[in-house]
């Protein structure tokens, strides 16, 4: 039996329009055996940091050989490059706009190329839909065995975010919210490693978000009373502020960039 060719899609297109479906159709024209998995099409429009967060949380869990097609691309039609990178045995095709920043922290970069030498010349390339006309057919050809080394040179530089780092002073960590998920949970930029270094066993911690008490450190959400705030190490070992069966984003009137403080007792 032939090998299954697995490709994931991550976009901000939503599911009510033709865009994601058009990309799938193009991939299947080039690689009819493609197995297409939707990571998400619900990234907030143009939100590169949210896209980077979802990519980094999901891509490492797919098997080696997977191709990841990432189209959150507010610079489409400009001179921004399209890149193809090999990370931990996976291939990622993405616009050069920083969306790869968090994946690079969790998967080793093995090679990266500027996509100039396309394997086929499309009859028409829209200035507003490179996902369909350039990136989707390229993903199909990579699934069929195309080596990204043939696509072009390595970039001298490529865009990465300057991610906010938490500030540690004595027994206090000052950070901020970097991601709000669909449950309204608030991921901070404070890693579990940093919190444990400062707080030891974290028996006595006072955490605030927007200067409002975030509750006690808990093992998981259900250890707090329904409607009560809590602090957890989330599935990526980052400090997360949540409400059991509620929305922390609403409770704390919080968004990306909102301040978080942890004072270790």
Protein described:
By secondary structure, the chain is α+β, with helices and mostly antiparallel strands. The chain has 2 domains: 5-150, 3-Layer(aba) Sandwich (Rossmann fold), CATH 3.40.50; 167-264, Elongation Factor Tu (Ef-tu), domain 3 (Beta Barrel), CATH 2.40.30. It contains 6 helices and 14 strands. The protein has helices at 19-30, 48-58, 103-106, 130-143, 192-199, 248-251, and strands at 5-11, 34-40, 67-71, 82-87, 90-95, 109-114, 167-169, 172-180, 186-191, 205-209, 212-213, 229-233, 238-243, 259-264. The strands form 2 sheets. Strands 7, 8, 9, 10, 11, 12, 13 and 14 form an 8-stranded antiparallel beta sheet that branches. The chain has a 6-stranded mixed beta sheet with strand order 2-1-3-5-4-6, with helices on both faces. α1 (19-30) runs parallel beside α4. The model has no long low-confidence stretch (mean pLDDT 94).
Key features of this structure:
2 domains; 6 helices; eight-stranded antiparallel beta sheet; 265 residues; Rossmann fold; alpha+beta; Elongation Factor Tu (Ef-tu), domain 3
In short:
By secondary structure, the protein is α+β, with helices and mostly antiparallel strands. The protein contains six helices and 14 strands.
CATH topology assignment of the largest domain = Rossmann fold
Estimate the mean pLDDT confidence.
94
- Span from first to last CA? 60 Å
Order of helices and strands: EHEHEEEHEHEEEHEEEEHE
Overall, the morphology is elongated
Tell me the count of domains.
Answer: 2
- Portion of residues in beta strands equals 25-35%
Main beta-sheet strand count, sense and barrel state: 8 strands, antiparallel
How many strand units? 14
User: How much helicity do the residues have?
Assistant: 10-25%
Low-confidence stretches: none
């Amino acid at each position: 039996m032939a090998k299954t060719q697995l490709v994931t899609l991550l976009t901000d297109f939503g599911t009510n329009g033709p865009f994601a479906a058009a990309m799938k159709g193009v991939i299947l024209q080039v690689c009819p055996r493609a197995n297409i998995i939707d990571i998400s099409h619900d990234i907030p429009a143009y939100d590169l940091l949210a896209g980077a967060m979802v990519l980094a949380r999901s891509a490492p869990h797919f098997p080696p050989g997977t191709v990841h097609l990432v189209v959150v691309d507010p610079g489409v039609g400009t001179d921004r490059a399209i890149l193809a990178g090999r990370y931990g045995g996976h291939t990622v095709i993405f616009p050069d706009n920083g969306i790869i920043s968090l994946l690079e922290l969790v998967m080793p970069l093995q090679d990266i190329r500027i996509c100039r030498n396309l394997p086929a010349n499309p009859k028409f390339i829209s200035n507003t839909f490179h996902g369909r006309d350039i990136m989707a057919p390229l993903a199909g050809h990579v699934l069929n065995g195309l080596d990204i080394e043939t696509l072009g040179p390595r970039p001298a530089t490529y865009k990465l975010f300057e991610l906010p780092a938490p500030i540690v002073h004595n027994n206090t960590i000052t950070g901020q919210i970097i991601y709000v998920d669909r449950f309204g949970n608030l991921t901070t930029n404070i890693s579990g490693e940093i919190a444990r270094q400062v707080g030891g066993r974290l028996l006595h911690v006072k955490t605030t978000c927007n200067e409002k008490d975030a509750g006690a450190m808990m093992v998981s959400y259900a250890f707090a009373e329904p409607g009560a705030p809590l602090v957890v190490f989330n599935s990526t070992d980052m400090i997360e502020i949540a409400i059991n069966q509620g929305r922390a984003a609403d409770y704390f009137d919080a968004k990306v960039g909102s301040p978080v403080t942890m004072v270790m007792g």
